[in-house]
Design a protein that fits this description.
The protein is elongated, with a radius of gyration of 24 Å. Strand 3 and strand 4 form a beta hairpin. The two termini are 39 Å apart. The strands form two sheets. Strands 8, 9, 10, 11, 12, 13, 14 and 15 form an eight-stranded parallel sheet that branches. A seven-stranded mixed sheet has the order 1-2-3-4-5-7-6. The longest helix has 24 residues. The protein is an alpha/beta fold. The protein is built from 16 helices and 15 strands. The N terminus is likely disordered. The chain folds into two domains: 174 residues, no CATH class; 247 residues, Rossmann fold.
Length: 452
């Protein structure tokens, strides 16, 4: 499966979309969304023909519309969320969210608005273009109105909305190749600056004592990162600590660090705007972090993402290079083994089973040019001796089984060394990488404790 096939269900120009039998388009969508139920299939059957009619009407009145594009079930970068339809028309990117009802709910409007927001914030080609969210209650007729920037219209009004889009002579219609390019994902520089300022300003009510207690670990990791960049090497840093000792804060402080910009290696499209990322398999924690960081824009996703979607994105695209140099893996002792990874991604098109999450992350890191640092936050305190060995030992196996095992250096506290005894991988003991004082804090007043 090609990179493009893994990102969407259907893509074509308007004429092709208009004349292709609806059942063929639906079949392509079913191949892409493998877990689609009967309700979803019926929704496609009901919505594709009206969309084709509206596209055909646009073509009948505007000869330039032959260069417009229709993309169905487009998967947002590093997400499992999919807008129903994306239209690349005139100078705009149009998001259609189809609902089988007479009038949309607030949740429907919020959904379409969030899709548009994420494209504006995380898709390079959308930065200077209008991104227009439209909710389409498929049982309604005519244009209904505008609520908080979201257009509401029945299917029969879509041709008028598309043909009435503003046109900028300096911005021709965006091509599908430009829109679907994997390299187009990058948080906007303004968003990165805002996220860092919000995190470091103190407005998030981080307790000074918590920052002070994590300073030794943060300083040590900073030295390791600078060393990796200077020597062009790859490092695995395992940070241990008792519950509530600040491991999450350590990870967040590192990914928001300004010095990473100076160390990042330029790519074909310039330096990465966000050279580090915090990843967690703990869904509630990801939601809390993104919620507390939302004030910077982009839904708080600039530096915080879920492990599953990250694995999904890069595992099915062997040639895709992560933009980051530093990958922070939260609760690394709970990383899934190969069997669980296969089960979690059973419905992912193009996914090849056989690797644990640590093996995937080591392989992803080895794609990164010149240097990289993977930071594993190890929770549970005593469990690194009793009960969590099977989870932590996976990181040793991942490095040993990698193609470049001799290029890796592992750093960790004394208690971690036992997991690497007899390994051919170099291990460097750093006492400051263990946090042994409980300093629970909150990112925001009334929020979930984040010192883990």
């Amino acid at each position: 499966m090609s990179e493009k096939q893994a990102r969407y269900g259907w893509e074509s120009n308007f004429p092709t979309f208009s004349r292709t039998p609806a059942r063929v388009i639906r079949g392509r969508l079913e191949e892409f969304v493998r877990d689609a139920g009967d309700r979803q299939v019926r929704a496609w059957d009901e919505s594709i023909p009206p969309l084709q009619r509206e596209v055909d009407e646009v073509l009948s009145v505007n000869e330039d519309a032959a260069t417009y594009s229709a993309i169905l079930e487009y998967e947002l970068p590093l997400e499992s969320r999919r807008p129903d339809v994306v239209l690349l028309a005139k100078s705009a990117v149009v998001i259609l969210e189809l609902k089988g009802k007479l009038f949309p709910s607030q949740a429907d409007l919020d959904q379409a608005s969030a899709y548009a927001r994420d494209l504006r914030c995380y898709h390079r080609e959308c930065e200077h273009r209008p991104v227009v969210p439209i909710v389409v209650p498929t049982r309604a007729k005519g244009y209904i109105g505008n609520q908080a920037g979201v257009q509401i219209a029945g299917p029969d009004a879509l041709d008028s909305l598309v043909d009435g889009l503003a046109e900028d002579p300096d911005l021709p219609p965006l091509s599908r190749e430009q829109f679907l390019a994997e390299s187009a994902y990058c948080p906007l520089p303004t968003l990165v600056r805002a996220a860092r300022e919000l995190f470091n300003s103190g407005n998030l009510r981080t307790i000074r004592r918590a920052r002070a207690a994590t300073d030794p670990a943060v300083d040590e990791i900073s030295r390791i990162i600078h060393e990796a960049a200077a020597t062009r090497t790859r490092r695995l840093v395992l940070v241990t600590g008792i519950p509530g000792s600040g491991k999450t804060l350590v990870g967040l402080r590192i990914v928001h660090a300004h010095f990473l910009d100076d160390l990042a290696v330029p790519r074909a499209n310039g330096k990465p705007t966000a050279p580090a990322i915090f990843l967690s398999g703990n869904g509630p924690l990801v939601e809390v972090l993104q919620y507390e960081l939302r004030g910077a824009g982009g839904g708080g996703r600039t530096f915080v993402r879920g492990v599953k979607d990250y694995v999904k994105t890069y595992s099915v695209r062997p040639g895709l290079i992560p933009p980051e140099h530093v990958l922070v893996f939260d609760e690394a002792q709970r990383a899934f083994d190969a069997e669980m990874v296969s089960a979690k991604h059973a419905n992912t098109p193009g996914f090849t089973s056989g690797r644990s999450e640590p093996e995937h992350f080591v392989e992803f890191a080895e794609r990164i040019p010149e240097w990289c640092v993977v930071i594993g936050l190890i929770g549970g305190g005593q469990e690194i001796h009793v009960g969590e060995e099977a989870g932590l030992i996976q990181w040793r196996h991942a490095v040993e089984r990698s193609n470049g095992d001799s290029d890796w250096v592992v750093h960790g506290a004394p208690a971690v060394r036992t997991h690497f005894e007899g390994s051919r991988v170099t291990f460097e003991e750093r006492a400051s990488l263990n946090l042994d004082t409980e300093i629970r804090f909150h990112l925001g007043q009334g929020s979930t404790p984040l010192c883990r």
